[in-house]
Amino acid sequence: DVTEIEQEEAQAKQEEQIMKEQELSNLLHEKRYLRALGLAISLDRPHTVLTVVKAILKESDGRKHLEENIVRLRRDQKEALLTFLVTWNTNSRNCHEAQAVVETLLKHEAPDSLLQYSGIKSAVESLLPYT
């Protein structure tokens, strides 16, 4: 009977998820935005990533801090961020944050580098009507 083992695994995953949620909350409270962005992206939480981006932009000199944090992300994290911002851009409440991230990516990534991103073609096609 593997039911008990499966229940234990599910509970362990749930506990790990709760720990990561708490860590994310602590990182936001401590204004450690780079780690918060990385954790929210790894959890695949677009809304949480948006919350982190909004928190960064609320800071004084927010655009500069946003650029500093996005530039330091790994390529796979930037790709995930790109897919998230496509969705954000379709909502007028979140389009300014999405545009700030797009601007940063376009400013700091070489065109050849951007073309290597997975899903870049569909992302650009989705961004154009709303931008």
From TrEMBL:
InterPro entries referenced in this protein's UniProt entry, alphabetically: Utp13_C
Domain (U3 small nucleolar RNA-associated protein 13 C-terminal): residue spans on this chain: 21-131
Cell compartments where the protein resides: Nucleus, Nucleolus
Pfam family, one: Utp13
UniProt keywords, alphabetically: Nucleus, Repeat, WD repeat
Main location: nucleus
Biological process (GO), any one: endonucleolytic cleavage in 5'-ETS of tricistronic rRNA transcript (SSU-rRNA, 5.8S rRNA, LSU-rRNA)
Single Gene Ontology MF annotation: U3 snoRNA binding
Keyword hit for Repeat: yes
GO CC aspect terms: 90S preribosome; small-subunit processome
PANTHER family on file: TRANSDUCIN BETA-LIKE 3, TRANSDUCIN BETA-LIKE PROTEIN 3
Protein name: TBL3 protein
Biological source species: Alectura lathami (Australian brush turkey)
